[in-house]
Structure formats: C-alpha cells, structure tokens
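The following record pairs a protein chain with its ligand, zinc ion.
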Amino acid sequence: MNVNRALPPPWSSVGDRLRERGLRWTPQRRTVIEVLAACDGHITGADLVERCRSRDMSTIPSTVYRTLDVLEELGLVRHGHDANGREEFHVLPAQEHGHLHCSRCGATWEIGEARAWAVAEALRAADGFEIDIGHVTLVGRCQDCADGVADLPPGSTRD
Ligand SMILES: [Zn+2]
Ligand SMILES: [Zn+2]
Ligand SMILES: [Zn+2]
C-alpha cells in the first residue's frame, strides 16, 4: 500500500489544518481521514473506530474522537444524534436535512432541505425558536404505523 498517495480535496489540506490546531499529523490520523474520505456521508463514531481498526490495529478511540472534534471545528464533519442520542457524524455536510425515526417499526429516513426548513420555519414563526434540525432525530410514527395502530399486538406499549 502506498501511504503517500494523495487525498482528494478538501482532505488534501487537512494535515496542515490539523497541525495549525496543534494536532500532529500521524499515520493514525491519516487513516481516520482516509476512512472519512471514503465514506458516503454518515458515519457513527463507533463505526469509524471499527473501520480505522480494520486498516490499522493500533488505532486508539480517543485519537479518533479528538480528530473528529477538530474536524468539526474546521467544518469538515458535523455531529448529530440518532434516536437514542448516539452521535452520528455528517461528513462534508453540504445540505441541511432532517432525520426521522419511527419508534414503532424502527425505520429511519431523511427529509430534504425544503421539508426540514418548513418544520424549522413553523417553530420559528410561532415561537421564535430556531431548531437545529440537522442536530436531532425527530422521533414519532411513520404513516404505515400510524394507520395500523389498531393492529398493535396485545401488550405493546404506545409511547
Ligand atoms: Zn449534539
Ligand atoms: Zn444526515
Ligand atoms: Zn413505522
């Protein structure tokens, strides 16, 4: 493996930018960046640690999380939370979007910028509250589950 192959932009300059923030540019950090550069937009911290470990067994979770903190300061990743509050990272956050989770069937999906904006705007207009829609997962019930509420097996909880 050629460890000196170039990273694609904007990752190509990340070594210098991390150094400016006082982080050494180590092989472990390079592995973190390579995994992020290859990922499709969303990754949990635990998945990132696991994928780094599969490339470099010496990867330490605290190194991964410290690197993520600085990458977030640089705007290259942005964290949100899944339905359980676990951190999930957006890699190169481009477009604002929201996450929905159905507490009955467990499905999750995204709403695009326009609908995320509509949800946020309704609250802002009514209460002056500016919800950070990309930061939280909205938990509720999907249409199929809402329609089928009467079919819940006995003993199920409706939360
Ligand atoms: Zn948060
Ligand atoms: Zn997302
Ligand atoms: Zn559902």
